[in-house]
């Protein structure tokens, strides 16, 4: 059983299509969408493309919705084999929303509510389960732009509780207008993906279970609504690394607890002059 969050469009849609094609009809691959009508539309588009995933409503911003999916998976299948945390939001560069609001809302969906999905679904992960979080190379950019003190802190191994504290502090700083004094770059989306990256490292260290592998990745700069269709990659190119990580074979020794770009591990380290390829 495979579940892809936020998969009614964009990269998540392509991940569902590729998982259906690669895994075959013995798998139940779930396209999920917070809006049932958008989910139904995506299913009919995929049917025309020759694949028929299952559907379940999922709004990661709603605890009730996440709990309903968890109960359904437990009751129907007794667990889960693949989880792709793809759902996320980004304010547009020209948004006039106050930075405090952008920080709170973006960190809520991209960090806290991705974590909420993990909290609900990790207990259901079966042996050899694969978990993939959609992160981003903007996490490297945010690290590179942080103050030297903050860079030092961010690159030490951190517990999940410390990562949570870091994200709470960032939002509190955003509300107080003191993000830069604390050494952070002024990017809510970038910091949310720093949170996802550090969450991946912490979860991979902590996870108990038989051969459960957690990684995160950057899909590249992809032609989707999120990028206002400015990215050069197709959604299928963007889906390549997430699908690779979601289908890592049993007993794999690496990558485990890593961030990948184009199927290659990207170390979490300050890289002066880092820019997104
Ligand atoms: P899109 O904006 O095209 O799609 C995002 C998807 O997430 C949509 O299906 C959206 O649903 C869903 N979503 C948003 N909020 C929620 C929520 N609360 N609950 C459930 N679903 C939700 O984004 P992309 O396809 O471009 O991005 C996919 C992932 O890849 C994201 O994690 C993004 O950060 C990451 N990424 C993308 C890059 C790019 O170049 N595109 C680069 C680096 C990383 P709805 O249609 O209802 O809004």
Automatic annotation (TrEMBL):
Q: Which Gene3D superfamilies match?
A: NAD(P)-binding Rossmann-like Domain
Q: Does the keyword NADP apply?
A: yes
The UniProt keyword set, sorted, is: NADP, Oxidoreductase
One Pfam family matching this protein:
adh_short
Q: Which PROSITE patterns match?
A: ADH_SHORT
The molecular function terms in GO held by this entry are: carbonyl reductase (NADPH) activity
Entry keyword annotation includes Lipid metabolism? no
Q: What is its EC number?
A: 1.1.1.184
The similarity annotation says:
Belongs to the short-chain dehydrogenases/reductases (SDR) family.
* PANTHER family tied to this protein: CARBONYL REDUCTASE (NADPH), CARBONYL REDUCTASE 1-RELATED
> Any idea what this protein is called?
carbonyl reductase (NADPH)
Please report the organism this UniProt entry assigns to the protein. Answer: Macrostomum lignano
Q: What is the lineage of its organism?
A: Eukaryota, Metazoa, Spiralia, Lophotrochozoa, Platyhelminthes
